[in-house]
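Q: Could you write out the predicted structure for this multi-component system? I'm mainly interested in how the pieces pack against one another.
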Amino acid sequence: AQSVTQLDSQVPVFEEAPVELRCNYSSSVSVYLFWYVQYPNQGLQLLLKYLSGSTLVKGINGFEAEFNKSQTSFHLRKPSVHISDTAEYFCAVRPGGGKLIFGQGTELSVKP
Amino acid sequence: DGGITQSPKYLFRKEGQNVTLSCEQNLNHDAMYWYRQDPGQGLRLIYYSQIVNDFQKGDIAEGYSVSREKKESFPLTVTSAQKNPTAFYLCASSLTGTDSYGYTFGSGTRLTVV
C-alpha cells in the first residue's frame, strides 16, 4: 500500500532563514507528487506538483521541491521565509489511477 | 471564476441532530471528495464519488451519508450516529477519479456540537 510520511510535525524557523520540509513516500508504481498549503481555517491550496520531466519543480510563493526517485522523497524548500509563510503544509502522492494520499502535515511557524 | 463553494463556514449542531454540509463546484469535475480534519490527524477521507449517482466509502464513513444526484453537488450529512462530529470538513474535486492533476479544495466548514 502507498503511504506518505512527513518527517517533521512542526518546524519553527526565524524570518528570512531557509527552510526544508521533508516528505518521503512509498509506492510500487509511478506517482504524481504534490505539496499543498493550508492557512488557518481555510482549505488547501496547491503549491506545486511533479508529474514528470525535470525533478526540480518551482511553485508559488517562492517554494520549490525536488523529486528524488531513488530516495522516494519530495522535499519542499524555500531559501528565505516570511511571517506570511506560517501555515500547515501537506505532501501528497497520487499513484497512477488512484486517489490522493496525504501526509500528516507539517506546521511551519515563522518567527520574527 | 471556477471553484468549490462550501457552506456554511461555521455550523453548530445539537447532540442527536442530523446536519447537512453543502459542497458545490462549477469546474465541471467528475470526481468529488469529502475529508474530515482533526488537529494532528491530517486529512481523513469520508466518502468520494467518481461519477454522478455513484459514490464509495472512504476510511471513516461510519455516521456519515452522501448523495450525488448532480455533477455539481456533493452534500454530506453528518448523522446522529457519528459520535464525535466536531471537526473541520473539507470538500474537494478533481477532473476525473484517475487523472494526474491534484484536487481543488473548498474553504471548509467547521462543525461544532453544542
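A: Regarding packing and overall arrangement: Chain B touches chain A through 25 residues (CB under 8 Å).
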